[in-house]
Q: What sequence folds into this?
């Protein structure tokens, strides 16, 4: 089982609709969870972090975490063409070694 | 505030050679991590340095090594280059050991 799994997409969403991106992780000891956005040819940029179960909202973005189900999601409301990018889920685990594991990313395409 | 800078931006090497990539962390950040990103994949964690000590490592062979200097800048060294080492190498800095990372623009390595 891969440590962090995401559907690679592409996920196509009409402009103005809600885009829903999902991520599962395998290590129950993982402590913190992150969503990064990566435009083509650019480096990843942090857009959301979440540390406890529930929802966290920031503008048009909502991150959701369910540790019992080992599931993280990102909702993008009122999707804009500028949201078209690859979204990377990242999981931070602090054991004897600290490690940050990224999923492969989901390509999101907002249809004008 | 100066962001994360990496050099060189592009380089071409032949199989068996050695390469050194450099990274200057964002002002005030004391932790640097390195990632390898192949085309269409998520970033793969190589290792992390906190206050000049390696404190986390991914599944990369020993020919991938690194350093962090007193000013928190860092180097990634790869010996005995293989064709599969061709990738974008990303450096990220953070304040402490956390998944809230700030990435540089990357060094694109091509191994022929």
A:
């Amino acid at each position: 089982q891969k440590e962090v799994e995401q559907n690679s997409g592409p996920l196509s969403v009409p402009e103005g609709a809600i885009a829903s991106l999902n991520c599962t992780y395998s290590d129950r000891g993982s402590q913190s969870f992150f969503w990064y956005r990566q435009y083509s040819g650019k480096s990843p940029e942090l857009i959301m972090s979440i540390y406890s179960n529930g929802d966290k909202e920031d503008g048009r973005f909502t991150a959701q975490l369910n540790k019992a189900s080992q599931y993280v999601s990102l909702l993008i409301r009122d999707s804009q063409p500028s949201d078209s990018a690859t979204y990377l889920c990242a999981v931070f685990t602090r054991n004897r070694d600290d490690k940050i594991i990224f999923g492969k990313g989901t390509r999101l395409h907002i249809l004008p | 505030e100066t962001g994360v800078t990496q050099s060189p931006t592009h380089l071409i090497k032949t199989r068996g050679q050695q390469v050194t990539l450099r990274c200057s962390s964002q002002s005030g950040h004391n932790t640097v991590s390195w990632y390898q990103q192949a085309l269409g994949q998520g970033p793969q964690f190589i290792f992390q340095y906190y206050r000049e000590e390696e404190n986390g490592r991914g599944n990369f062979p020993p020919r991938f090594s690194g350093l962090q200097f007193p000013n928190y800048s860092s180097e990634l060294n790869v010996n005995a280059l293989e064709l599969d080492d061709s990738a974008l190498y990303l450096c990220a800095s953070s304040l402490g050991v956390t998944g809230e990372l700030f990435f540089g623009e990357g060094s694109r390595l091509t191994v022929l």
Remarks:
- The mean pLDDT of chain A is 94.
- The interface with chain B takes residues 4, 6, 32-34, 36, 42-46, 49, 88, 90-92, 94, 97-105 of chain A (CB under 8 Å).
- The CA atoms of residues 55 and 87 of chain A lie 18 Å apart.
- Chain A has no helices and eleven strands.
